[in-house]
Amino acid sequence: MQKLNLSQSLSQKLSPQQIQFIKLLQVPTAELDTRIEEELEINPALEEGKEEKEEATQDEYEDTYEEDMGSDDRDLNLDDYLDDEYGGYKMQGDGNYNSDEEDREIPISSQSSLHELLIQQLNYLKLDDRQRIIGQQLIGSIENDGYIRRDLEAIINDLAFSQNIESDIDEVEEILRKIQTFDPAGIASRNLQECLILQLERKEHPEDPIVQHALRIIHDCFEEFTKKHYSKIQRKCDLNEEEIKDAVNLITRLNPKPGGASDGLVRTQYVIPDFILTNNSGKLEISLNSKNAPELRISRSYADMFDAYDKSDKKDKKLKETVSFVKQKLDAAKWFIDAIKQRQNTLLRTMEAILQYQKEFFIDGDETNLRPMILKDIAEKIEMDISTVSRVANSKSIQTEFGVYPLKYFFSEGIATDSGEDVSNREVKSVLQAMVDAEDKKKPLSDDKLVKMLNKKGYNIARRTVAKYREQLQIPVARLRKEL
C-alpha cells in the first residue's frame, strides 16, 4: 500500500551568478587574464573596452525576453555546478587546485627533461639493441627525485611482458651500474645510502682521507649517521672527533635528491601580488593590482540584435531561436562583468579589514606585532560569510615594502600570556625559532626545555603545542639538531 509523507529539509542552493562569482573570487591574479580570455573567446557578446553610456537596451531585452520566452533564472544546486560547467560556459581556475592544474599554469623553461638527458647519455654507450632496451626500461623507472624504487624483479617482468626480452638480475644490475655513472651524480640509486656512496665515489680526489672516512661511515654506520649517534660512530670506525666532523660536513653537502624535487623540468613560477600596499608618510593605502580590474563591456552589436527582435514579428520560430541564443550570450556577458566587479569589491573590502586589524605589522613589518586573527574576525567586520573570506585568504597575496605575503600569513590563533593578553602564535613561533637558533648545537634544547623557557617568558604553552610549532617551522627534534 502506498503512503504519502510530508517532510522538510534544508539545502544550500546558489544561482548561476553566485556560482560564477565564487569561482572568479578564487582565481588568483596570475590566472585571471587567462580566465577572461577564455570567456571572450566563447562569448561574442562580451568585449574588451570601457562600458558605453547607452546601455538602456540591456534592461529592455531582459523584460522583453521574459515576456516572450519565459524566465529561466532558476536556482541551481551548489554541488551540481561548482565543479562542472554551466550554461555552456566552462569555468576554470576555481581555486580547487591539483598538481595537474598547477603544472599546466606554471611557465616552463625550454630545457630537456631529466629522462631525456639520461637517454642521451645512454646513447653514448656502446650497447646492443637488447641492452639499450633494458637501459631505457631502467631510465623509465627513475622517479622524479632520481631514485629507482621498483624492485628489479618487477622491471625484469615488465621487460618480458612488454618487450619480449627474457633477462635476469645480473644483466639488469650490470646495465644499472652503467646508468649510475651518468650525470647527475647519484642518479638511479635504489636508496639514500647508495645515492651518497655513488656521489662520494665520484669525488675529484676519492683517495682523500676525508672522502674515505665519509665512505666508511655511510658503508658501516649509516643507521648511526641518520640518528646522529656520533659517539657510536667514533667507537665503531676508530675516528677522532675532528675526523668525524670533517666527514659529516662532506656528507651533508651531498645531494639527497639527484633528480631534483620536480619531474625533471626546470620550472619558474611567478608570484603576482593581488594587492599593493603603499606607505605615504605613515598613511597606509591599499590598491588592487591593475590586472584585477579589466575593462569589459557588452557588445553593442548583440544588444542591437536583441532590440531589432523586439520590433519584428515575434511569431517567426527561427528568429525566436536566434534571439534565445542571443539572450543567453547577453545574460552570460552581463553576469560575467557583474561577477568581476563583485570580485574587485570583495577583494578590497577583505584586504582593508585585514589592514585595519594588522595595522601595526604593516607599518614596520615586525611579525611580533601580528595580532591573533581568525577568519571569523574579518567575516564579521565586512559582514560576509566565513567561506568567502577563506576563498580570498587562500589564494591571494599582498606586496609590501617588506616583501610579498600570502593573506593567510596574517591569520593565526591566540596564545594566552601571564598578563592575561592574547598574542599571535606567530609571535610564539618567532621566539621559538630564535631560541633554537641561539642554542648550543652540541647540546640542543629538548621540547621540555623549550617549554620551560617559553613559560618563563610568559607564554602559557604546552609541550605538544611546542612540538607542533617546531614541526611547522621544520625544526628537527633535538637529537637531529646535534652537531659536533
Automatic annotation (TrEMBL):
Residues 57-70 have a biased composition (Acidic residues). The keyword Repeat does not apply. Transmembrane segments: none annotated. Residues 36-76 are annotated as: Disordered. Residues 109-302 form the RNA polymerase sigma factor 54 core-binding domain. GO terms for molecular function: DNA binding; DNA-binding transcription activator activity; nucleotidyltransferase activity; sigma factor activity. Keywords: DNA-binding, DNA-directed RNA polymerase, Nucleotidyltransferase, Sigma factor, Transcription, Transcription regulation, Transferase. It comes from the Bacteria. Belongs to the sigma-54 factor family. PANTHER family: RNA POLYMERASE SIGMA-54 FACTOR. This is RNA polymerase, sigma 54 subunit, RpoN/SigL.
